[in-house]
Amino acid sequence: MVASHAIAPASDAASAPAEEHERSENGNKPEAEGARQQVPWREIQALAMRQLDRLMALEPKVLRGDDPDAIHDMRIATRRLQQMLDLMFPAPQPREVARIRKRVRRCRSVLSDVRNCDVLLQHAKEALSAKKPPHAAAWEAFYRYVEKQRERNFRKATEEISRQHLAALYLRLKPWLTSAPGTGGNGQPEEGDQVTAENLNERLKNELERNWTTFHDRLEGARQSHARLGIHELRIATKRLRYLTEALHQLKQHGAATVLAGLRSMQQTLGEWHDLEVTGVMLTELAARRKFLRDQLDTAAAVLRLIRSQRAAKKSFEERTLKRALSDEKTGMIEAWVEDTLKTLAGQATA
Known about the structure:
Oligomer: single chain
Strand content: under 5%
Number of domains: 2
Number of strands: 0
CATH architecture of the largest domain: Alpha solenoid
Mean pLDDT: 86
Low-confidence stretches: 1-39
CATH class of the largest domain: Mainly Alpha
Largest sheet: none
Structural class: mainly alpha
Number of helices: 13
CATH topology of the largest domain: CHAD domain
Radius of gyration: 24 Å
Shape: globular
């Protein structure tokens, strides 16, 4: 088991303002213990604001359409911001926060197909860059098809992102992320369960427990069957556990860095499986197009051969790489850390 350690501020610089507030007017006597307990809360607020600022900075780059990395980074920023909102405002969330969270999630969702196309275009380029690329005609046809799909998906995504009015979203969400604990976006006390600095460890524990339970259930399901839906659900659960672990790492939770590396590795493997899955789906869509079959029969036959090759590659990946990534040897360390961290947080919450 990993040794238990209390959560500390993410940096000395970040904790400096708290140290100033600990002093009374004469500059000598510390204030109540509650002032100290608010330091981690301010760290949570800072992490959330960092992702909100990043989301705004990425919007113009995404809308230009020529930067695949910006699209990828924007999706990551929305996931991290969503995780921080869930941590700061446990269910039932204030109505306005819930509405904003839904809009943030929508921005990520509409970019999903664009991101898939960017990845597949890169794979096709790599396949065609070989000296004597196998299935060259099929890859070229696939590249042209994905390129057109990307244009269509990007147009839809930018229209939807524009409708979300991110500048207005920023102005509405910022007060919620910078207000004192237990108050809403207008500085007034929130309705329902109060969000306070003192119960931060309890919320961290509950969020970790919830994410771990989902991850564990999805992991067991994926081990028993390599069904497409089960692996996809595990991929999503892995992302959520990873981003929560990132927050715990920023808060100096002991052992989080090692676990984070393991989750990133698992996410990478699941991402490679997802790329093979989407490649197969889009190749099948291309081969099934009536006009393509009628006008380019020889190329369509080449695409069918490529589909068979890709299915064989995906099956081999599932039987070897994916199976190894989901083994107890790879996930045992994550489980041990989660169990130990839950005990640590539970002890701090009742202290």
